[in-house]
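Notebook entry, structure prediction.
Reason for the run: the old model in the group folder had no record of what sequence produced it. Starting over properly, with the input documented here first.
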Amino acid sequence: MKLHVLPAGPIATNAYLLTAAECGEAVLIDAPGDIWAEIQPLLAKEKCRLTELWLTHGHWDHTQGAAEVVRQAKPRVRAQADDRVLYETPQVMSAFLAPGLKLEPVFPDLWVTDGEHFQALGLDVEVRHVPGHCPGNVLFYLAAAQAAFVGDALFAGSVGRTDFPGGSLEVLTQAIRGRIYTLPVETIIYPGHGPATTVGDERQNNPYVSG
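New structure, fully documented this time:
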């Protein structure tokens, strides 16, 4: 499996493209604005078909490009149902958009649940629900790759904002300790913004949520 880190959209939201040339398939994690233009040449170069789109949560900067990706590649879309209103009626986020930004709805095919396991690219994927920044924030954990894609729950040296509707610092803190810090310390954390970090580093050094 090969990992491509692709910051995109108006506020440089991280999208992650996982490609597996051996099976000719790929997975996209989150879909910021204009991401299709970024991933299309990579898919062609590596001779992979985009089979799945995983959305970590429903905030606009992670979903702005999702409708275009679905139109172009027709992947199966996975997301968590607590953010259903954000995915299917994104105009509810209009107060938080910069002027001129437009959103299209996306309709997930599968609603993931906490503790669920499924197979992708020949690997086991575990879903963990990490609310607090957003009600439906989830992480996707690939144990074989020692990687967790956590959305906006946790960043290198920081945590997600909790002042949006549905946010709660208490809920987020509990979720980080119970759902992220319980992963193996060597697990690489791939956040929705900024650089990667590790579970061990954040448990020891994060000034907002200690281990």
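Summary: The radius of gyration is 16 Å.
The old model has been moved to the deprecated folder.
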